[in-house]
Design goal:
Elements: E1 7-12, H1 14-19, E2 25-30, H2 32-38, E3 47-49, E4 62-67, E5 72-76, E6 79-84, E7 87-94, H3 110-129, E8 133-142, E9 147-148, E10 151-152, H4 153-167, E11 178-184, E12 190-197, E13 202-204, E14 229-232, E15 239-245, E16 248-249, E17 252-253, H5 259-281, E18 292-297, H6 303-314, E19 319-324, E20 334-341
Parallel strand pairs: 2-3, 8-11, 18-19
Antiparallel strand pairs: 1-4, 2-4, 5-6, 6-7, 7-12, 8-12, 9-10, 13-14, 14-15, 15-20, 16-17, 18-20
The structure holds 3-(2-carboxyethyl)benzoic acid (3EB).
3-(2-carboxyethyl)benzoic acid binds at residues 139, 179-181, 212, 224, 226, 243-244, 246, 248, 328.
């Protein structure tokens, strides 16, 4: 089958998942309460445990990725993955306390070592599975905004992602996946999950923003290696993956301290990406209200104002999951990621 498979994202409760057949599930992410609800249940697909609290009214939510073909689970090293058609979902977690404390200055910090290991394991699994092209990566980093060893942990993560990618012959600009990098609870492992394909996606940048891989050095010694969005496939079978998007124009944060304005600016950025992606896929632009969203809120007290902005823009029926998470810049209150299928509506 060369036309490509359809990929779908659903937010479901653990009991809704169990009442459906597991067939076609490529993988899933469980957030704090849903992971507790699933505790002890054996699942036959890779399941990432993300240590972030759900803020939506339904607290037990799983993010489930399905393909419309039979899926097969397997593992490689620390990576659990499943393949379905030309798609792969994988996940892995690395504890920093497994790794040696740094000795001499210049040796990697525990988070750098964990990131290095996680990225090498991910690339090795992709090579073994024959799906080398990363589409989308989610990175959950405990204490993302905390300074240790003289550098903020998000910046340590960027240093090691860059080094591991280069060491594995991977791009660090241009042909880089869509991504998100968020905080997770203190003491949780570095947790990654990802989607890949044997086909390369198209890589989309936002004309309103400097590409993250060209950010100036004031944001850290190594730039974040991600694209603003990727598109896999063409026409009505194309799928769009929008990276974590925030209130950044050029390379600067706008509206620090104003979560409502940050939410509106973020939606303008997402609309700019929809237009670029529609051009790339050779279709009309997807509409904002047809995407499926994950919204990361730093301070849960700001959820009502953020939610009000999103409901005004998207209506009350949009598919949205709200999570509490720290965001990679201390002046950002909200970050939004999204996925859409050109044939989904
Ligand atoms: C930004 O636009 C916000 O380091 O992989 C968003 C998505 C952000 C992904 C990453 C960082 C990452 O710079 C931060």
């Amino acid at each position: 089958m060369s036309a490509g498979q359809r990929l779908r994202l659903e937010y479901v409760t653990p009991s809704e998942l169990q009442s459906k057949t597991g067939q076609g599930v490529l993988g899933a992410a469980a957030f704090d309460d849903s992971a507790r609800a699933l505790n002890g249940t054996a699942v036959d697909f890779p399941l990432a445990h993300v240590h972030a609290a759900v803020l939506s009214d339904t607290r037990e939510v799983l993010e489930v990725w399905r393909a419309d073909v039979r899926t097969r689970a397997d593992s490689h090293g620390r990576v659990r993955y499943a393949r379905g058609g030309d798609l792969l979902f994988g996940s892995l977690a690395v504890r920093e306390d497994e790794l040696p404390e740094p000795g001499a200055s210049g040796s990697p910090t525990p988070l750098e070592a964990a990131t290095n290991l996680a990225y090498r394991e991910m690339y090795a699994a992709l090579a073994a599975a024959g799906t080398p092209h990363l589409l989308r990566v989610w990175n959950y980093i405990p204490d993302i905004n905390v300074d240790t060893y003289g550098l903020e942990r998000y910046r340590q993560f960027n240093t090691a992602r860059h080094a591991a990618s280069r060491a594995c012959g991977r791009a660090v600009m241009g042909s880089v996946p869509a991504a998100s990098a968020l905080g997770a609870k203190t003491g949780s492992p570095l947790t990654l999950y990802f989607l890949a394909s044997h086909r390369a996606p198209a890589f989309i940048e936002n004309p309103r923003q400097v590409s993250a891989y060209r950010y100036p050095a004031e944001y850290g010694p190594r730039s974040p290696a991600f694209s603003r969005a990727t598109v896999l496939g063409e026409g009505s079978r194309a799928t769009l993956f929008i990276s974590g998007t925030a209130s950044i124009v050029g390379h600067r944060t706008l509206h620090a301290g104003d979560p409502a304005a940050q939410t509106r600016e973020t939606l303008v950025n997402i609309e700019a990406l929809l237009e670029q992606a529609g051009r790339s896929a050779g279709t009309g632009a997807l509409r904002l209200e047809h995407l499926t969203y994950k919204v990361y809120v730093r301070d849960p007290q700001k959820l009502p104002v953020i939610r009000a902005q999103l409901e005004a823009a998207l209506g009350r029926d949009a598919a949205l999951l709200y999570l509490q998470a720290d965001i990679c810049r201390r002046d950002l209150s909200v970050e939004i990621e999204a996925v859409g299928g050109f044939g989904w509506q």
